[in-house]
Amino acid sequence: MSTFTIFLILIVVVAFLLVVVIMVQNPKGGGLSSSFGGGGTQQLGGVKKTTDFLDKSTWTLATLLLALILASNLAINRGAESIDSKALDEDAATTAPALPAPLPAANDPATATPENSTEE
Predict the structure, then answer these.
(1) Do the Cβ atoms of 3 and 71 come closer than 8 Å?
(2) CA distances (Å), origin 26, targets 33, 40, 103, 111, 118
(3) Does residue 87 lie in a domain region?
(4) How many helices (H) and strands (E) does the chain have?
(5) Which of 45, 71, 81, 111 has its CA 20 to 30 A from that of 5?
(6) Exposed/middle/buried for 11, CB within 10 Å: 0-12, 13-18, 19+?
(7) Is 114 domain-assigned?
(8) 39 assigned to some structural domain
(9) Please, what is the Cα angle at 106 between 100 and 109, to 5 degrees?
């Protein structure tokens, strides 16, 4: 298994966990934290602590996902013959690109049509 494949698996797992943590949260302050007591005086862990945990885990997973994506770029196998730019390729620099065929002139009698004809 290549290093890039390992990074790819980790990226998928972290992305899935990030989706789960975001879906558990409620934008109005409810979500998982409201199911742990819902405003009563005795709460399992406390609503504030649950919200802090979900907030910190969201930021941690997002940072980890970004770091894994950037690190996976370094693990891509580009091969020995790969050149990043065509400007650095010596073979491409010596061959000139083919020029497109010139467009016919508007006043050329051979290609004149009634629309672009100036004679009446």
Answers:
(1) no
(2) 9, 18, 62, 69, 72
(3) no
(4) 4, 0
(5) 81
(6) middle
(7) no
(8) no
(9) 110
Mean pLDDT for 47-75 is 87
Q: What residue numbers bound the domain in which 56 lies?
A: 12-22+48-78
Closest residue by Cα to residue 59 from 20, 13, 29, 18: 18
pLDDT digits (tens, 9 = 90+) for 77-103: 776 665 566 666 666 556 666 677 777
Tokens standing for residue 63: 């940072």
Size of the chain in residues: 120
78: Cβ contacts below 8 Å, ≥ 6 apart: none
Can you read off the two tokens belonging to residue 9? 């698996």
Name the nearest CA neighbour of 68 among 18, 23, 21.
18
Which tokens in the block code for residue 19? 């989706």
Token reading at 4: 């890039």
Q: What is the pLDDT of residues 102-118, one digit of tens each?
A: 776 667 666 656 665 56
Decide if 118 is inside a domain.
no
Q: Is the pTM of this model over 0.85?
A: no
